[in-house]
From TrEMBL:
The lineage of its organism: Bacteria, Pseudomonadati, Pseudomonadota, Alphaproteobacteria, Hyphomonadales. One of its GO terms (molecular function) is DNA-binding transcription factor activity. This is TetR/AcrR family transcriptional regulator. Residues 1-34 are annotated as: Disordered. Residues 1-14, 23-34 have a biased composition (Basic and acidic residues).
């Protein structure tokens, strides 16, 4: 029986997120020079991205942030949900103003190509988060994890930091009047997921440092725009009719 318990305990240890990786050692060293709150946010971003919103314990986050006081997270944030919100806010406070600035440019020009320009306001400000940083790049992977485990990122992140996304979405809806409302809604949700998940994959591959990065991002914008604006297929038209009859 003792051996069985030992085997089970070892199995639990194997499944438990560990802090032994080089990236986490680097994160800990960098955290020594940062204030506690910032260090915790950056450690949480990295660990949430790797292990999920509930896969990393407060103890592990505190260790990665070089916080000797185990209650530091509760002191700074109060709860896991508030820590998750702080991770969003830490990056989105820069992303959202960039989106709003790009939207002003789009609104000033308008005309041909407006749909692609609007999609670009979604994608490029977030893609800029993939540029190499001293603490590493984990934010978009964190967003992708949050989307899979909870719900849409636009519902998880603080609403006042998603205004650029909403304004672009509202304008895109006006350009999609050739489609039924159900199709518009589905396409916008799919486009949001495509944006986050593709950029998360790029981030995991450290694409922000690649000479092909601009090409990858512009191609992603092309794909999202085409998916949003394409006419309905005959199969989708039939599905809409069946849904209306149901």
């Amino acid at each position: 029986m003792g051996n069985c318990h030992n085997d089970r305990d070892r199995g639990i240890e194997r499944r438990r997120p560990r802090m032994a990786g080089k990236g986490h050692r680097e994160l800990t060293r960098q955290s020594e020079t940062k204030n506690g709150r910032t260090a915790i946010i950056e450690a949480a971003e990295s660990l949430f991205a790797e292990y999920g919103l509930h896969g990393a314990s407060f103890r592990q986050i505190s260790e990665a942030a070089n916080q000797k006081n185990a209650s530091a997270i509760q002191y700074h944030f109060g709860s896991r949900d508030q820590l998750v919100e702080a991770v969003f806010e830490n990056r989105m406070r820069y992303v959202n103003p960039k989106r709003l600035a790009l939207l002003e440019e789009v609104q000033a020009t308008g005309g041909t190509g407006e749909a692609r320009a609007l999609v670009s306001t979604w994608v490029w400000p977030l893609a800029e988060e993939l540029r190499p940083r001293e603490e590493g790049n984990h934010y978009v992977q964190f967003m992708a994890r949050a989307t899979r485990e909870k719900q849409l990122v636009i519902q998880l992140a603080p609403a006042d930091l998603m205004t650029g996304w909403f304004l672009a979405a509202d304008r895109l809806k006006q350009l999609m009047t050739h489609l039924p409302e159900q199709v518009i809604r589905t396409r916008l949700l799919a486009a949001s997921d495509q944006c986050v998940n593709c950029l998360a994959a790029f981030e995991a591959e450290q694409a922000g440092a690649s000479p092909d990065f601009e090409l990858q991002v512009e191609t992603l914008i092309d794909m999202i725009t085409a998916g949003l604006m394409a006419p309905m297929s005959a199969a989708t038209e039939q599905a809409v009719k069946r849904r209306r009859k149901a």
